[in-house]
Amino acid sequence: MKPWSWIPTLYFAQGMPYVIVTSVTVIMFKRLGMSNADIAFYTSGLYFPWVIKPLWSPLVDILKTKRWWIVVMQIIIGAGLGGIALTLQAPLPIRYCLSFMWLLAFSSATHDIAADGFYMLALNKQNQAYFIGIRNTFYRIAIVFGQGILVMSAGILEKLYSEHLPATTAIPKAWSVTFYMLTALFVLLYVYHHRILPHPEQNRGITSPQHTTLRHVIREFGHTFSSFFRKKGILPALLFILFYRFAESQLVKITSPFLLDSPATGGLGLSTTQVGFIYGTIGVIALTLGGIAGGIVISRKGLNSCLWGMTAAMNLPNLVYLYLALVRPDNLPLISGCVAIEQLGYGFGFTSLTYFMMLFSAGKHQTAHYALCTGFMALGMMGPGMLSGWIEEFIGYQNFFIWIIICTIPSFWVTRYIRPLTIPQARGEQQS
Question: Which phi and psi (to 5°) does residue 203 adopt?
Fold first, then answer.
C-alpha cells in the first residue's frame, strides 16, 4: 500500500487517545468543577504509561508483529472510550473516568510503540524523512481535532441539554455522548487499518517458536536497554529530550483553563464552544502549515543546520499568552490569531524533536529505542505538568505566563549541546 493510504490515519489514531487523556480531560474536568491544581496533577499523572512504556517495548519488538499490536490496541482503545462514556453519567464519574483513562493511557502507549516501529519498518530512510512532517501533522491534527472539534461538539451539546436539564446533569450527559461518538470513530479506524496496513517483509517471521522462548526474550530485553545507554552522545541526547519542551509541559495544562475562566479570576471567559472553535479552525490550519514546513526544511537542509531556528519557533511564540493575560481582550479574532501564532511555531519546532529521536534510535532495536526516547520525553512532560496547576493557583495567570517565558531557557541550553551531533548509534553497532 502507498504510504499516503495509511500514514495520515495511523498517526491520527495515535494522536487521538493521547490528546483525550492529556488535554481534552483538562477541559472536561474543568467543566465538571475540578480545581486547576487537581486537573494538572491528575492529567499529568496520566503521562506515566508513556514514561514506563520502554519496560514492555521489547515485547512489542519481539512478540507478534507491529501490525498485530496496532490493530489490537485500537480496539482496546475503543473499549476504553466506551467505558468513559458509560461512567460519565454515573455517581462519582471522575473516579471511574480516571480508571478507564488509565486503561486508555496504557493501550495508547503500547499503540505508540507499535506504530512508530511499523513506520520505520515500512518506509526507507528517504521516505521516513519525507513523511516526518506528514505524520507529525496528522498527529497534531488529531490533537487539534480533540481540543477543537471534539470540545466544540461537547460545548454545543452542553448548551442543548442545559435548555431542559440542570447544569450538573447537562454537562456530564454532553460529554458522555461525545465519548460515544469517539468510540464509534475508533471502531471504524480499527476496521480500516485491519484491511489497509501493509505487511513489511522485515516484520515477518518474528513469531517463530525459536524467537519466543523465555530465555530469548530476557536476553533481548537486557541487550535492548544496555545498547541504548551505550549510544554515543547519550547524556546530551537525554537532556535534550527531557528539557526541549520544558515550557510547553506546563503551558499545555493551563491554556484551556485560562481561556475558560472568567475575567474576574484572570481568564478570558470564553465558552466551551468558543475554545473548541479556536483550536479546531485557526489552530489546525496553523499547526498543519507548521508541521509540513518543518518536515520540508529538515529533509532539505538537515537537522543540524536548522535546529536553533526550530527551537526558537517552539518557544518564542509562548509570549502571546502573556500578552493575552495582560490585555485580556474580548476580541475572538485577536485571540484566535494569538493561538495561531503559537500553534504555527509549535508545529514547526516539534518536528525537530521527533526527527532527532528517530535518528538517535537508528540500529537493531530501533523500535524499543524510540520507545525509550518517547518515554523520557513523556517524563519531561509529566513532572513539570503535575506542578503547573499549583504554580498557577499560587501566582496567578499573568505571573504564570511570565514563568513560562523563563522556562524556555532550558530548551535553548540543551540545544547548544545537541547541535554538533549527527546520527549517534550504539558503540557495538559502530564497531560492527
Answer: -100, 5
Q: If you search the block for the grid coordinates 506542578, which residue do you land on?
A: 387
Residue 362 lies in a domain: yes
Q: What is the CATH number of the domain that holds 259?
A: 1.20.1250.20
Cβ atoms of 268 and 258 closer than 8 Å: yes
Question: How far is CA 240 from each of CA 143, 345, 365, 416, rounded to the nearest angstrom?
Answer: 23, 18, 21, 9
Query: Domain range spanning residue 137?
Result: 10-198+215-421
Closest CA to 56 of 109, 134, 125: 109
**CA R_g for the chain:** 21
For residue 96, give Cα distances in angstroms to 52, 89, 101, 176. Answer: 23, 10, 9, 13
Residue type, 208: S
SS3 of 231, please? strand
| Residue 411 within any structural domain of the chain | yes
Query: Which element (helix H / strand E) includes 176?
Result: helix 167-196
Q: What is the dihedral of CA 83, 171, 400, 251, to 10 degrees?
A: 40
Query: Amino acid identity, residue 110?
Result: T
Contact between 228 and 369 (Cβ < 8 Å): yes
SS3 426: strand
- Mean pLDDT of the region 207-213: 50
| Domain-embedded: residue 203 | no
- C-alpha–C-alpha distance, residues 428 and 251, integer Å: 40
Number of domains comprising the chain: 1
Is the separation of the CB atoms in 276 and 153 below 8 Å? Answer: yes
Tell whether 295 is covered by a domain: yes
pLDDT (average), residues 50-64: 79
pLDDT in tens, 380-426: 988 898 899 899 999 999 999 999 999 999 999 998 887 555 444 33
Q: End-to-end distance of the chain based on CA atoms, in angstroms? A: 33
CB 407 within 8 A of CB 385: no
Dist. CA 27–CA 24, nearest whole Å? 5
